[in-house]
């Protein structure tokens, strides 16, 4: 493994052993001095144990350790770290003695718990830089949300603050939301329409319970006073007490901190104030009342507040996946291809017959793995932007620029599966703002001018399994194979279109359908079914007749929520 991806979903201190790395493809003759770790293009310091300098010095007892965090984007909770066997020494975690001077001894540090549920999708919220996922609906029926507070410091007079952010639902409607805490009213949150409502409230210390605390939200301004919970956050003073043999805490430079509550001896104490360059400290560890207690004086090497992490051996984390990298070079200047089939890896082999068909038709064609685009254009992390980056790069730098794009694999407006309908975001789409709602747009990938119109014809095979991909490719091959026979049997079928419009209401489907008709070639024979000018039974029968008895090239159906345009290859 000259280069491998280390996938991490949560913050922690991580360890990878030499046997694990060898199994993932690391050359056992590697010189451990040249092992380097990167995240989003920036080198991270690592700790190497059980190794000696020189080729082959990373033996079976060797391991690397590092500090890592997950990410939280609309597309992923997984940060990708890249382990590279390079040709120059990498950055290492510095070991620094703790301060020998005992300063102030704080009894607590500021800590917060946050509720950020994602159980409701609000497609009609037309705002940039939001994923449109929120929590519970707040109405005149009280909504209870629970925050768990642990190890609350008993020190009187220290601030406890409750911060609430709500998202308004109904345009123009006034919002008046009463905020309760464990049965006591703390205040009211007022805002308007689809604004964000924000409030920060003091919570009396005597009202805060160790463990579960209930926030109650109740709308007061009538039936249109509807909003969604975005975030609820409680900030309170936390004692220096480990939870599950780990503690992330803060302290001022020079302060002397004592941490109790460890059931196993703390294994690592690291200063993570600079996350890419953690500093290992040596604490004083003692046994007291059957538990382990850690003491440390925070170094003066950096003034101000330090963030530190203490973990026992049992809490040293392990990446959820380790993947060997297979290099690609789609970002480079090259000869290029006219047809790009951008696919999830599990469907790639099913595309071979289709690629060969296009090549036999005189078009250069290539299968591009979406994971390679993540690696090349976004440091391995999921984002639909990588498809646009590829197409823009190819248009500017390739000799044969892409003329057609086929996306192979389903996509989802819920790529992180918040709603629980399934994880099938194989090749992501872009969610864009339209006049009515946020919705998916594959045209965005080649809309380089941001004019609302893609520059490269783009289609998608929304398959979820290799079997589905094989079936769809077989249908395409059969369609092309039978094209000549179809023309012989049905005449000039390729110049026939069926246009269907739903009944007009808030949307003028008739007008929009006629605008599509105006764009079609004059020689094309168009059959229009306009539901607003027909009774329901007649409209239904004309649609069925058009689909079942005609051989048409294009069908467009405009109804609420979607417009479907598709080529038809058979009467059924």
Explain what the structure shows.
With 572 residues, this protein is of the alpha+beta class. It folds into five domains: 3-95, no CATH class; 108-239, Sandwich (Jelly Rolls); 249-312; 326-481, 3-Layer(aba) Sandwich (Rossmann fold); 491-572. It contains eight helices and 37 strands. The strands form ten sheets. It has a five-stranded antiparallel beta sheet, with no helix packed on it. Strands 8-23-22-26-20 form a five-stranded mixed beta sheet, with no helix packed on it. Strand 22 (266-271) and strand 23 form a beta hairpin. The longest helix has 16 residues, at 466-481. The chain is flat, with a radius of gyration of 30 Å.
Q: Which tags fit this structure?
A:
Jelly Rolls; alpha+beta; five-stranded antiparallel sheet; 38% strand; 5 domains; flat; disordered C terminus; 8 helices; five-stranded mixed sheet; 572 residues
Number of helices: 8
| Whole-number total of structural domains | 5
**Major β-sheet profile:** 5 strands, antiparallel
Beginning-to-end CA distance, first to last residue: 52 Å
Radius of gyration: 30 Å
Average pLDDT for all residues: 91
Q: Helices and strands: which structural class?
A: alpha+beta
Strand order in space, largest sheet = 4-3-7-1-27
Q: Which spans of ≥5 residues are poorly predicted at pLDDT below 50?
A: 562-572
Helical amount: 10-25%
Label the CATH architecture of the largest domain: 3-Layer(aba) Sandwich
Strand content: 35-45%
β-strand number: 37
CATH third-level topology of the largest domain? Rossmann fold
CATH superfamily of the largest domain: Gingipain r, domain 1
Query: Which overall shape is indicated by the principal axes computed on the Cα atoms?
Result: flat
- Per CATH, the class of the largest domain reads Alpha Beta
């Amino acid at each position: 493994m000259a280069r491998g991806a280390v996938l991490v979903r949560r913050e922690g201190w991580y360890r990878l052993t030499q046997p694990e790395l060898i199994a993932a493809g690391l050359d056992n003759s590697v010189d451990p001095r040249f092992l380097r770790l990167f995240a989003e293009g920036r080198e991270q310091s690592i700790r190497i144990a059980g190794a000696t300098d020189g080729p082959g010095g990373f033996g079976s007892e060797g391991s690397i350790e590092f500090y890592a965090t997950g990410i939280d984007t609309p597309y992923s909770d997984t940060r990708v770290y890249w382990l590279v066997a390079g040709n120059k020494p990498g950055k290492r975690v510095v070991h620094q003695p703790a301060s020998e001077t005992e300063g102030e001894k704080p009894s607590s540090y500021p800590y917060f718990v946050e509720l950020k549920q994602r159980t409701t999708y609000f497609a009609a919220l037309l705002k940039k830089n939001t994923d449109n996922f929120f929590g519970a609906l707040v109405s005149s029926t009280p909504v209870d949300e629970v925050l768990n507070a642990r190890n609350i410091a008993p020190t009187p007079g220290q601030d406890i603050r409750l911060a609430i952010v709500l998202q308004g639902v109904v345009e123009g409607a006034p919002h008046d939301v009463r905020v309760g805490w464990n049965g006591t009213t703390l205040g009211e949150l007022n805002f308007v329409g689809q604004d964000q409502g924000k409030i920060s409230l003091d919570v009396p210390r005597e009202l805060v319970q160790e463990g579960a605390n209930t926030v109650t939200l109740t709308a007061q301004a009538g039936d249109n006073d509807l909003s969604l919970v975005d975030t609820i956050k409680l900030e309170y003073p936390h004692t220096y007490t480990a939870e599950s043999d780990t503690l992330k805490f803060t302290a001022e430079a020079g302060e002397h901190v004592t941490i109790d509550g460890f059931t196993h001896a703390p294994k690592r104490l690291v200063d993570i104030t600079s996350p890419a360059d953690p500093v290992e400290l040596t604490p004083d560890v003692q046994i007291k009342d059957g538990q382990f207690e850690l003491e440390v004086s925070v170094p003066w090497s950096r003034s101000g507040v330090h963030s530190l992490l203490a973990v026992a051996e049992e809490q040293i984390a392990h990446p959820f996946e380790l993947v060997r990298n297979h290099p690609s070079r789609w970002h480079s200047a090259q000869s290029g291809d006219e047809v790009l089939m951008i696919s999830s890896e599990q469907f790639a082999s099913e595309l071979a017959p289709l690629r060969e068909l296009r090549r036999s038709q005189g078009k250069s064609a290539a299968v591009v793995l979406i994971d390679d685009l993540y690696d090349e254009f976004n440091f391995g992390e999921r984002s639909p932007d990588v498809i646009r980056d590829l197409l823009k790069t190819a248009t500017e730098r390739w000799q044969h620029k892409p003329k057609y794009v086929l996306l192979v694999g389903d996509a989802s407006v819920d790529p992180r599966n918040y709603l629980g309908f399934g994880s099938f975001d194989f090749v992501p789409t872009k969610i864009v703002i339209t006049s009515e709602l946020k919705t998916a747009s594959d045209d965005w990938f080649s809309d380089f001018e941001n004019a609302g119109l893609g520059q490269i014809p783009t289609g998608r095979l929304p398959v979820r399994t290799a079997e589905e991909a094989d079936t769809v490719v077989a249908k395409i091959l059969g369609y092309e194979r039978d094209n000549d026979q179809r023309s012989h049997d049905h005449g000039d079928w390729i110049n026939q279109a069926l246009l269907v419009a739903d009944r007009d209401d808030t949307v003028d489907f008739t007008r929009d359908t006629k605008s599509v008709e105006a764009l079609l070639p004059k020689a094309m024979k168009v059959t229009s079914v306009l539901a607003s000018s027909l009774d329901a039974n007649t409209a239904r029968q004309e649609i069925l007749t058009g689909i079942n008895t005609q051989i048409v090239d294009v069908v467009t159906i405009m109804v609420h929520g979607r417009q479907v345009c598709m080529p038809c290859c058979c009467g059924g």
